[in-house]
Amino acid sequence: MTELLTISNLSYKKNQKQILHDVNLQLDSGKIVALLGENGAGKTTLMRIIAGVAKNYKGQVSLEGEEKEVQRKAKLSFTDNLTGFSDSTKIKDVVEFYINIFTDFDENQFEELRKFMKLDPEMKLSQLSRGMKEKLIIALTFSRKADLYLLDEPFSGIDAMARKRIINSIILWKEDQATILISDHFVNEISALLDEVVVVKDHTILEHKTADEIREGHESIEEYYEGLYADEEDE
Ligand SMILES: Nc1ncnc2c1ncn2[C@@H]1O[C@H](COP(=O)(O)OP(=O)(O)OP(=O)(O)O)[C@@H](O)[C@H]1O
């Protein structure tokens, strides 16, 4: 087992508000890991810190031994929200940008994924529905040959049928040794894929377990996850 990502004593404040506190996490290569937690728990923030987008945190984040943000960014592929592009940008122009920026961007892989997602390269970003935009983001994210893929609620606007097709194929879009960290509010949809589960609660990581460990003691990963909040509902 090779150590891929190590986060030690990570704390993060924004506008004097504590968003993450004393986060410690270690992920190995070749895993599919769910990042679960309620709205506002800090999942996006944690991914943004790992991705090198959110800065000024306290603690250490190291990806294959690299702590510097530029070096981390070169090794990971994060679901960008495409906000840097104007509405009139065409899909093919976004791809051109990715080819120029990321040396690991594989054009052939993008073509395959674009067809899988049924996207027309001539379409402008303004013409894409929410689900279509998410499909484009997934296609772009997996067209890079990265060691770590960070998927932040990648399917929230995608219809159920397409979601199923994508989830069933995700494992084919990465190299064996690459790890995927994925946040999703519908854990049962991705549970079959999962090797590990990380739960963020009260500004920190509450649990980090293997999927097998969870399945041994629970009916399903969803049932385990809901159980973590059951006491609160009783109050
Ligand atoms: N720019 C900001 N300024 C201040 N607080 C922020 C900012 N962005 C996020 N937060 C706060 O940080 C906390 C964590 O937000 P984050 O988006 O990381 O949560 P999340 O777990 O991804 O939620 P969701 O499931 O709704 O996507 C929230 O309490 C939110 O209010």
From TrEMBL:
Q: What superkingdom heads the lineage?
A: Bacteria
Q: ABC transporter domain: which residues?
A: 5-227
List the molecular function annotations (GO) for this entry: ATP binding; ATP hydrolysis activity
**Entry's SUPFAM superfamilies?**
P-loop containing nucleoside triphosphate hydrolases (SSF52540)
Which Pfam family is an annotated match for this chain, by its short name? Answer: ABC_tran
Assigned keywords, A-Z: ATP-binding, Nucleotide-binding
Protein's recorded name: ABC transporter ATP-binding protein
Annotated source species:
Lactobacillus xujianguonis
